[in-house]
């Protein structure tokens, strides 16, 4: 009995010690050697408590597949002309390409596709007279891996953009949700507008030749009309205009290896510009393109908006280019950031945006904590009033419960949210219930004339079944909440789950140990309960 | 030994009161079903979490009338606008409003930006601050709604299985009916009072379900114990009555302590927690009632017929 009592006492104290160690960083700033050996993380606060943004993006993988088919079709067309494969028709279908060739060209085409267009497989063919219709499409397994690859690349790109943004966000969360959704959480972000602009931008950079010949309203085939970003240099207000460019991009942003802001650069040493550096292949292409098109204008297009269209004065070697256009320093920084980190593999659509201002967050946390403290005090007072001496034992157990719970929060680095605080309060409620169940049982045992020790033992063992059932039913709800819940609800479920387990532990080891100790030490003839 | 007791040894005939209770329960459940139908067809006060749309919370520096605000927003092209003044707790005295619309985009602008623009133009003398905002795409709302319903159903199924295993099938079914009763009652009350149903409300529903079950399990536990003790000697109704009376003080004290904490949340917890605390408060009352007046009499009815 005593041996097991000692064991329980040690277990309780060791856990208490560990919990306090984990909670320490929330109260004191650790320095020097202490910092190295002790946990130094504070309890993470959720967006609802410290303010910030929660953004849910959908990656448009359909558009990505579409682009890919376009690219493959271009390649197929050029290739067939080069190889001398005569084709009667070439059409884009919903998820592939249809090619029509004479039947004697069939084998040649098969070989060519296998060698040069590895994305595509021939999935169907039918013969009509002398013509063979072939359906080329991307293999389903390939589609799946392309999509998941795209999501991963998008996550990586967004992570880099945020890391280099200087938002000062301490713990950004960037994770995949579902098949093609991306969740971004920016706790404490100061400038929500800028964050939206930076993260949501596709940043597809293209260099296209301006078609000087197209002057009328009609856009010639192979050309496209794009809006032009212009700002009057005095007011900075946008002015609307557009420009006709060749559809085909001569060079794209994936050849950019670095980009940085230069202030006071440019021809007239005014304004802010972004300098880009190309990869060696990019440099070679740029050199060739500029050499071939001296005197023409080269449009710099970002996400289908023309930023500038300078005249090519001479061949540009060395692999560097500039984008100018009345940027503020901040805009230029973000532009350099997205160019450096590359385009998203596909455009993203913002499908959920929760922004909590810091005032609201602080309001919430202060009120939530105040309410929790007041509620706690009310319970403590009530337990002592109703169960007298034993009420103090219950309050001690409750206090242990709270310290363990917060310690576990810190140790698992769980995020504290407003529903989380509600979860803590509810856990306290369940802790009280546990004690009430036990105490009422002990009273019954005492009423039936048992000794103090027998009554305590009987009370605990009889109440235990009920307590276990009650906790497990709640735990079932909690687990399901955790699986289906998002954000704040998950926080609630985590708190409650940790709370339930701690509650059960304390019901077995906590208050019972205190009673056992009192009984063993003082051998009381009556119990204050 | 003397104990401090809120109830002396009671001998209340709970089973005898069952018909009166059933009338009350019937009204609550009917209300809940009506509320559920209205929620299903989108006629209830659902948050943008479920409907999709934009919700913005603003704080004005000077008092402003809801009517003026609505007129200005409607004129500014924000269709279908709902405005709610934030009161409750310490926010009283502040000019806080929640502005909701089904729109995500107003023309080419984000709805949120349009709202800010309209307000600053219409009330130039009254400075305001955007405290928080929420934009939800319709697909997200739909997923959330189906997930919420699935979560509620799955947890109820899980709980029935557990109780059926720990007790028996009859107890499991009765406990589920009682739990549905509570969830529906809470839904009905929220619907009638026109409180906003958001993610926190779903959390509250599930918490109430858990709490009510705990309560029911405690009573069932005692019924099972007494049934084993008394065997064929006495009738089911009497066993149930004795059991409820025996655990009555526990039921009342636990509910009382939980209500104390919730009262603290209600009074000083601020507006974000107010609805949540209110839902839990009502839920605890209903859950306590149902374990005594719904879950237990159901066992009686079933056993008596068998």
Describe this structure in words.
- The complex is a heterodimer of chains A (529) and B (306).
- Chain A is an alpha+beta fold and 529 residues long.
- Chain A has three domains: 215 residues, Multidrug efflux transporter AcrB transmembrane domain (Multidrug efflux transporter AcrB transmembrane fold); 80 residues, Gyrase A, domain 2 (2-Layer Sandwich), CATH 3.30.1360; 154 residues, Gyrase A, domain 2.
- Helix content of chain A is 53%, strand content 22%.
- Chain A contains 13 helices and 19 strands.
- In chain A, strands 7-8-2-18 form a four-stranded antiparallel β-sheet. Chain A has a four-stranded antiparallel β-sheet with strand order 3-4-6-5.
- In chain A, strand 10 and strand 11 form a beta hairpin.
- Chain A is elongated and about 105 Å long.
- The model of chain A has no long low-confidence stretch (mean pLDDT 84).
- With 306 residues, chain B is α+β, with helices and mostly antiparallel strands.
- Chain B folds into two domains: 198 residues, Multidrug efflux transporter AcrB transmembrane fold; 84 residues, Alpha-Beta Plaits (2-Layer Sandwich).
- In chain B, the strands form two sheets. Chain B has a four-stranded antiparallel β-sheet with strand order 2-3-1-6. A two-stranded antiparallel ribbon of chain B has the order 4-5.
- Chain B is elongated and about 80 Å long.
- Classes of the chains: A alpha+beta (529), B alpha+beta (306).
- At the A-B interface, strand 18, helix 10, helix 11, helix 12 and helix 13 of A face strand 6, helix 5, helix 7, helix 8 and helix 9 of B.
- Can you identify the CATH class of the largest domain in chain A? Mainly Alpha
Strand content of chain A is: 15-25%
Characterize the quaternary organization of these chains. heterodimer
Largest sheet features of chain A = 4 strands, antiparallel
Proportion of residues in helical segments of chain B: 55-70%
| Count of individual domains of chain B | 2
Cα-based radius of gyration of chain A, to the nearest Å: 34 Å
Order of strands across the biggest sheet of chain A? 7-8-2-18
Approximate helicity band of chain A? 40-55%
């Amino acid at each position: 009995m005593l041996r097991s009592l000692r064991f329980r006492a040690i277990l309780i104290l060791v856990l208490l010690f560990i919990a306090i160690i984990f909670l320490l960083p929330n109260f004191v700033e650790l320095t020097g050697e202490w910092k190295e050996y002790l946990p130094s993380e504070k309890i993470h606060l959720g967006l609802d408590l410290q303010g910030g943004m929660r953004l849910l993006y959908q990656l448009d993988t359909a558009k990505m597949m579409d682009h890919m088919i376009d690219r493959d079709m271009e390649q197929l067309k050029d290739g067939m002309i080069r190889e001398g494969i005569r084709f009667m028709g070439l059409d884009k279908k919903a998820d592939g390409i249809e090619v029509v060739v004479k039947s004697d060209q069939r084998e040649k085409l098969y070989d060519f596709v296998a060698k040069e267009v590895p994305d595509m497989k021939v999935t169907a063919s039918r013969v009509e007279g002398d013509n063979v219709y072939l359906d080329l499409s991307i293999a389903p397994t390939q589609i799946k891996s392309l999509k998941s690859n795209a999501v991963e690349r998008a996550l990586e790109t967004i992570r880099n953009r945020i890391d280099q943004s200087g938002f000062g966000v301490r713990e950004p969360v960037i994770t995949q949700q579902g098949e093609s959704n991306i969740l971004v959480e920016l706790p404490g972000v100061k400038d929500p507008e800028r964050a939206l602009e930076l993260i949501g931008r596709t940043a597809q950079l293209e260099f296209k030749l301006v078609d000087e010949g197209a002057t009328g309203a009609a856009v010639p085939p192979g050309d496209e009309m794009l809006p032009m970003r212009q700002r009057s240099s005095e007011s900075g207000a946008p002015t609307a205009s557009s420009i006709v460019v060749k559809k085909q991009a001569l060079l794209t942003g994936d050849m950019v290896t670095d980009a940085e802001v230069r202030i006071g650069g440019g021809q007239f040493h005014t304004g802010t510009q972004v300098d880009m550096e190309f990869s060696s292949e990019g440099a070679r292409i740029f050199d060739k393109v500029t050499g071939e098109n001296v005197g023409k204008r080269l449009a710099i297009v970002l996400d289908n908006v023309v930023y500038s269209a300078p005249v090519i004065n001479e061949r540009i070697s060395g692999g560097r280019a500039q984008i100018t256009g009345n940027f503020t320093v901040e805009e230029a920084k973000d532009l350099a950031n997205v160019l450096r980190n590359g385009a998203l593999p596909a455009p993203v659509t913002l499908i959920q945006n929760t922004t909590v201002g810091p005032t609201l967050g602080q309001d919430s946390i202060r009120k939530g904590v105040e309410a929790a403290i007041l509620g706690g005090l009310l319970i403590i007072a009530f337990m002592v009033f109703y169960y007298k001496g034993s009420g103090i034992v219950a309050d001690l157990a409750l206090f242990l419960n709270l310290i363990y719970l917060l310690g576990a929060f810190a140790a698992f680095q769980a995020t504290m949210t407003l529903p989380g605080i509600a979860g803590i309060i509810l856990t306290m409620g369940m802790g009280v219930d546990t004690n009430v169940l036990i105490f009422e049982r002990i009273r019954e045992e005492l009423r039936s004339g048992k000794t103090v020790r027998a009554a305590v033992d009987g009370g605990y063992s009889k109440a235990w079944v009920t307590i276990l059932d009650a906790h497990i039913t709640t735990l079932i709800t909690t687990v399901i909440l955790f699986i289906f819940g998002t954000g704040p609800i998950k926080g609630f479920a985590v708190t409650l789950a940790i709370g339930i387990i701690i509650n059960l532990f304390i019901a077995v080891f906590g208050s019972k140990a205190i009673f056992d100790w009192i009984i063993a030490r003082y051998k009381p003839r009556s119990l204050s309960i | 030994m003397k104990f401090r007791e809120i109830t002396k040894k009671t001998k209340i005939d709970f089973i005898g009161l069952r018909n009166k209770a059933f009338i009350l329960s019937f009204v609550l459940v009917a209300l809940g079903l009506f509320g559920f139908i209205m929620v299903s067809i989108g006629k209830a006060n659902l948050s943008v979490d479920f409907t999709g749309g934009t919700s913005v919370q603003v704080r004005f520096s000077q008092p402003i009338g809801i009517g003026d605000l609505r007129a200005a927003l409607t004129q500014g092209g924000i269709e279908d606008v709902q405005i709610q003044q934030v009161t409750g707790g310490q926010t009283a005295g502040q000019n806080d409003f929640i502005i909701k619309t089904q729109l995500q985009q107003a023309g080419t602008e984000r709805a949120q930006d349009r709202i800010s623009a309209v307000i600053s133009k219409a009330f130039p003398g009254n400075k305001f601050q955007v405290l928080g905002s929420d934009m939800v795409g319709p697909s997200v709302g739909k997923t959330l709604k189906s997930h919420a319903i699935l979560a509620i159903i799955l947890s109820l199924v899980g709980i029935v299985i557990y109780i059926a295993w720990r007790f028996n099938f009859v107890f499991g079914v009765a406990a589920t009916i009682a739990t549905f009763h509570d969830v529906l009652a809470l839904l009905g009350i929220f619907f009638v009072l026109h409180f906003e149903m958001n993610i926190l409300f779903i959390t509250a529903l599930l918490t109430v379900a858990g709490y009510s079950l705990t309560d029911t399990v405690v009573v069932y536990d005692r019924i099972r114990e007494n049934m084993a003790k008394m065997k064929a000697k006495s009738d089911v109704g009497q066993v149930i009555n004795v059991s409820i009376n025996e655990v009555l003080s526990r039921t009342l004290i636990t509910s009382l302590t939980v209500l104390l904490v919730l009262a603290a949340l209600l009074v000083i917890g601020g507006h974000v927690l107010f609805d949540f605390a209110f839902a839990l408060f009502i839920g605890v009352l209903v859950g306590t009632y149902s374990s005594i007046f719904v879950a237990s009499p159901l066992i009686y009815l079933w056993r008596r017929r068998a």
